[in-house]
Specification:
Structural class: alpha+beta
Distance between the termini: 80 Å
Shape: elongated
Low-confidence stretches: 1-26
Largest sheet: 5 strands, mixed
Number of domains: 2
Number of helices: 22
Strand order of the largest sheet: 4-3-7-9-8
Strand content: 5-15%
Helix content: 55-70%
Length: 564
């Protein structure tokens, strides 16, 4: 019976002798060879990300992108500032100027990685996307390592190459997101658990625990790894492994490494888990939507081959291999985490499943080819693989073009009669302008030069996800007086999304009262209003209500604000 290795290897020319795969690298050069593979994939990742416009895009790709970027810059700035201030005090002072940090809302590892990266590379859009490319190519190399012992080096290289050109995956890595780090960490943890299922060696359990803890410290989605041992042990029927002390070294390490952060930030974790007024998606809707999302990675024919691979590796082999069982645990864990435990149909949450999908895609090629060879010539395998890859690459997702936030920040600075500005809009809009303003200051090697106020924080009050929303002013006149007292000279309002009550009140006040006039804007969907008699500096403290996160207000005294 032709094995998966023989079938796929014959399709691309990998030489095998029996079940032994001839490795092209001598053992001492294995790491050098892996580095060269990563380097090539890293270059291709940058090219594919460039074709999607990721380097030219702005920080409004999703609601969290600006927060991730700003938090990474915050860590970098603190490390290079040499300030004697405690980290929390420094962050609070920076937040008053650029209020889009999210330290503590997510676990810290991705932001620490960003901060370290920005120590060596200027914190810009370009350097952040290069970091995403490095993580994408790292994920591809780990996929190569996980697959090469079963399908050979050349076939594994082909799969790794597809991972860095898959349109859906590339479009997700083209945004600054913590999920980009979660992909290689969950894959490494899964691979080490597969090795543990084979060897029962303590070192493999320890490495599974280390990479799982790092995944937990990257994002809460890391809890999907719980399903890897559950399904891995269940599918391989190694029930006595639950009694093996070596297995429990992994959860002990997770508690040791990740437990302190989770215990110390428990209230913030509960707060961040709130889905807001809309609540969670229904489990039925999330289950079907996430299944559709997983299929979008592979295309229709690729998804069919994944299904065949799941059957051939799990249902028709008793018991399945350790690698197949662990990869099934990863795939099911990604789906179950966001369909059953935390129902949410967001495509980027499904990224950790891509290596498992590719594994079962390979597994499905063998059985499908044996059926097709009865009707097709000897090249059925190559034709099937080529058709699958082409269908995966045909549909390129629509990329969001730049709206012009950089031009808008320049226009607002030119019009400003004071150093205090305000942006009103939904999270991505406010975050994009704040991030561009912060990057502008850092490129000029300056400390925060401007104070940017968020309308959603200053004119209204709500939780992280928009719950308990209320306008904090009783009338347009009261709102205008506060703008004058805060020293605000320019206001921008985003009209591309629905206007909230505080934005409608502000618009009414600016159009009908006082010394405000509307100016031309370089950005469609944005309206700019300028105070023709601008205040030179704030007359009263600027207070940002942080009662939901810090339990108190942050206060910027007039003397601390920068006058023009």
């Amino acid at each position: 019976m032709t094995s998966l290795t023989d079938v796929l290897s014959s399709a691309i020319g990998t030489k095998t002798y029996g079940q032994h795969i001839v490795k092209p690298f001598a053992e001492p050069w294995r790491m050098v060879a892996l580095f060269l593979v990563w380097l090539g994939l890293f270059g291709i990742s940058n090219l594919t990300l460039n074709t999607t416009g990721a380097f030219k895009a702005e920080f409004d790709g999703n609601p969290d992108e600006a927060s991730h970027m700003m938090t990474g810059m915050l860590i970098r700035d603190y490390l290079v500032s040499g300030t004697p201030l405690p980290a929390v005090k420094y962050a609070e002072r920076q937040y008053l100027a650029y209020p889009k940090f999210a330290w503590g809302v997510w676990p810290p590892l991705f932001h620490v990685l960003e901060g370290g990266w920005f120590l060596f590379f200027e914190p810009t859009r370009g350097s952040a996307i290069v970091l995403m490319a490095a993580l994408l190519s790292l994920s591809a190399v780990l996929s190569f390592v996980a697959l090469r012992d079963e399908i050979g080096n050349k076939a594994a290289c082909l799969i790794a190459l597809f991972m860095v050109i898959c349109p859906v995956a590339v479009s997700q890595f083209g945004v600054v997101i913590a999920d980009a780090l979660l992909v290689p960490l969950t894959l490494a943890a899964t691979w080490y658990f597969a090795r543990f299922l084979e060897t029962h060696a303590l070192r493999h359990s320890i490495w599974f625990g280390v990479f799982s803890a790092l995944a937990f410290l990257t994002k809460y989605n890391g809890f999907l790894l719980i399903f890897v041992p559950l399904l891995g042990i269940g599918l391989t029927r190694q029930w006595r492994l639950w009694l093996n002390p070596r297995l429990w070294a992994a959860p002990a390490l997770i508690l040791l490494l990740a437990g302190p952060w989770y215990v110390g930030h428990a209230p913030m974790i509960v707060y961040a888990a709130d889905m807001g007024p809309g609540g969670f998606d229904s489990r039925t809707f999330a289950s079907l939507s996430n299944l559709k999302g997983l299929m979008s990675f592979m295309g229709p024919l690729g998804s069919l081959l994944v299904g065949i691979g799941l059957c051939s590796r799990l249902a028709f082999v008793k018991p399945p291999s350790a690698n197949a069982a662990a990869q099934a645990g990863l795939l099911f864990g990604v789906w179950a985490m966001h369909s059953l435990l935390y129902p949410s149909s967001t495509l980027r949450y499904l990224l950790p499943a891509l290596p498992a999908l590719l594994y079962f895609f390979c597994a499905g090629l063998g059985p499908a080819t044996r059926v097709l060879q009865r009707a097709l010539p000897r090249y059925a395998m190559r034709l099937l693989a080529l058709a699958s890859f082409m269908l995966m690459l045909v549909a390129r997702p629509h990329e969001k073009p730049p709206r012009g936030w950089r031009d808008l920040t320049s226009r607002m600075r030119d019009l400003a009669g004071s150093r205090v500005l305000m942006i009103c809009g939904e999270g991505p809009a406010e975050g994009a302008l704040i991030t561009e303003m912060a990057i502008h200051d850092r490129q000029r090697d300056r400390k925060p030069e401007w104070t940017v106020l968020r309308g959603s924080k200053m004119l209204a009050k709500s939780t992280w996800m928009g719950g308990n929303y209320q306008v904090v002013f009783n009338s347009p006149d009261e709102m205008l007086r506060s703008l004058k007292n805060w020293g605000v000279s320019v206001v921008a309002i985003d009209f591309t999304a629905k206007l909230y009550p505080h934005e409608r009140m502000l618009l009414s006040a600016l159009q009908q009262r006082g010394t405000w006039r509307e100016e031309q804007t370089p950005m469609e969907g944005i309206r700019i209003f300028v105070d023709t008699v601008p205040p030179q500096a704030p007359h009263q403290p600027i207070e940002v209500d942080m009662s939901y996160t810090l339990g108190r207000k942050l206060r910027l005294e007039p003397a601390e604000s920068k006058a023009e």
